[in-house]
Amino acid sequence: CKFRCKGCQNPELQNENGGYWVETSEIVKELDKFGDFYKSVTFSGGDPTFQEMGLIELAKQIILPKILYTGMLYEDLSEEVKDVVDIVVDGQYRENLKTGGFPASANQRVIRRKDII
Description:
Elements: H1 24-32, E1 41-43, H2 52-61, E2 66-69, H3 79-84, E3 87-90, E4 109-112
Parallel strand pairs: 1-2, 2-3
Antiparallel strand pairs: 3-4
Helix pairs in contact: 1-2
C-alpha cells in the first residue's frame, strides 16, 4: 500500500513487492468451499484499489455482498469499482482521529451503494 498510514492494522501488507500472484478464479474457488458460511466479502488493505483490475474481476465473480475499505476518497474511485461493490469505507486511516469503533477514524465515511444488509 502506498499510503503507509501511521497505526495501520496491516503494516505487513504495505510492501508493494510482497505477496504473490494468484488467479481470481482460484480465490473464488476457495470461497466456494465454504458454501453458505460467509454472508459477505471484505476487500481491505493494503489498499485493494492499487490492483484495480484484479479487484474488479474478482468482485464480478462473487455473488455475496462486497465491502471495500480504501484509503481513496469515494469520489476518486472509478465508476467500474463503484459498480462492483456494495459498501465503501473510504479515506485513509488517521491515528490522530481514531474512533475506537467503526469506522476506525473520524475522517472515514461509510457509503452504501446498494441495499444489501
